[in-house]
Amino acid sequence: MADHFANIQKLPDPIAGCPNFRRVPGYKVYCCGQPTIAGFEACLTKVCGDTYPKDGKIIWFNLRQEPSVYVNGEPLCARPANKIGEYAELGNITRDQNKADEPEFMKVCENRAKENGGKLKVVDINKVEKEVEVKEMKTLSEVIEGAKAKFPGLVHMRVPVCNSAAPLENDFDIMCDTLTGTSINTPIIINDQVGLSRATTACVIACLFKEFQINASFEGLVETVPGVNLDLLKMDRYKMDPNKDALFRGEFEVIKELVAELKDEGAKNECDKVIDKNGPAKTGGTGIKQLRENIAESKLSYEIMDDAAQVFLKSKIMDNIHKYFYIIVFAGYIRDAVDAAREAVDAEKKSGVALPTSGKCAIPASELKLTKTFAQYMEENASFRDLIEAGKGNLQWERDMPPAALANLEGLAAKDFKGNLGNIIHDIYQTAHVMFGDMPQGDHKKRAKYRFASKTIMRILPAAMKKEIEGLIEAKKMTMDLYEILGKCTWVEIK
After folding, report:
1. What single-letter DSSP state applies at residue 289?
2. With 70 as the cut, is the pLDDT of residue 220 above it?
3. Can you give the pTM of this predicted structure?
4. Any residues with CB less than 8 A from the CB of 81 and at least 6 apart, and which?
5. What would the mean pLDDT of 317-341 be, rounded to a whole number?
């Protein structure tokens, strides 16, 4: 499948060959989609600018689960036929698997081109097929080695993750291991196919690691500056707009339980600050995806979906809550690591970095070490795993109908369903008007009210009629649609 497609670029000021490139405000962390060969050089040149040395260390994380090859400088990936145009949730793919699959994928491509007169058939996410005359073919590993000719400090690390749920605990550790030993101004670049969810998630993790470096390196040094109010420099005092809906503030029940377990509101605050910086302009970022508010937006969409679509969306919402939960836990882990990292300095080095006035250490970021892995932290706090598994679905998936309104409808239906049908429909829509009054006018609200009416009429049908219609729906001879149900209920067979 071709990685690039029409309208892949979502952001202003594009860099040719590097879709959706941007820098996270306040951090030397960059995000993008899968670059072309020329796009790699353009991206690295932009990141270095006029000040950062081209031979300096640059960390590049690739979040793709799919093996990649480059044909004529353009990226292609291997996708199962049923995943074309969909998010590639390919399971527990490891870095080693991905790297080993690429040469095999290239052999398949070479053989197909050879059998087709030197031309390779590819499709894009819209399933539009085209033929490409193959002039050059390389694996991603070969492309990276080529980029190192001009940028010898480039470190390319694959961390294959799925799109919706959290990265694996080991994935957090792979990123931390790769970033350990870097300086605060070391550039970090992160890509997935387009520069959306997977890359944004990893950017949040990278920014939290940068926060760890800043806090652990500079706190002791800042304390020596007379008159500085240390509370003003705290990164965990971030406050969201209190007028936002609770779901948009990430106040899900399982998240509130987690904050109570952590005994540290600062972990969520710091996490939310970083998520907002990685989001679109409306939350202070330069990106596309808002990892927290996207959950709330999906929840609002859930109300207007049909049953089949709701099954998929519910799974996606719970996966995204799982991801948000784990990022907050990681923020708690990395905050705990600050003091431990300062104390872990070798005794012989302490004299060189200890500040005489406070005794605290001002340690260069490149010398900071994590004293335990995230996986070890999760073993020590294994209850967090049970908490998210039990609580990620703890949402109100359907709005509650006012008991008085339901009792009124049930009474009308029991007394004379057909005779009172006009009043029943009127009262259903009157109830829907009140229940969905918080939604803005438009198609979303109309669909939500219509779907509510369809479900409610089914709920109050007389028993015999309900059994008949449920049988027809199960047999796929009709759907749970208001007009279809009313048509069946009011149909009089001509004798």
Report:
1. -
2. no
3. 0.86
4. none
5. 94
Give the Cα-Cα-Cα angle 29, 34, 36 (nearest 5 degrees). Answer: 115
Check residue 287 and give left, alpha or beta (phi > 0: left; psi -120 to 50: alpha): beta
What's the pLDDT tens digit per position in 467-487? 999 999 999 999 889 999 999
* 449 contacts 457 by C-beta, under 8 angstroms: no
What's the pLDDT at 307?
A: 76
pLDDT of residue 264: 85
- How far apart, in whole angstroms, are the C-alpha atoms of residue 36 and residue 75? 6
Report which of residues 210 and 344 the model is more confident about: 210
| Rg of the chain on CA atoms, in Å | 28
Full 3-state SS string of 403-432: HHHHHHHHHHHHHHCCCCHHHHHHHHHHHH
Q: Taking the CA atoms of 306, 309, 312 and 314 in sequence, report the sign of the dihedral they define.
A: negative
> Residue 281 gets which letter from DSSP?
G
* pLDDT single digits (tens) 362-408: 678 888 889 999 999 999 999 999 999 999 999 988 888 999 999 99
Closest CA to 18 of 1, 50, 2, 42: 42
H runs (alpha helix) in 180-306 = 197-222, 253-262, 265-278, 293-302
Q: Give the integer Cα–Cα distance in Å for 39 and 323.
A: 30
Structure tokens at 368: 């900071």
Identify the band that residue 232 occupies on the pLDDT scale cut at 50, 70 and 90.
Answer: very low
Q: Using CA atoms, how far apart are residues 182 and 210, in angstroms rounded to an integer?
A: 10
Could you count the other beta carbons within 10 Å of the beta carbon of residue 53?
10
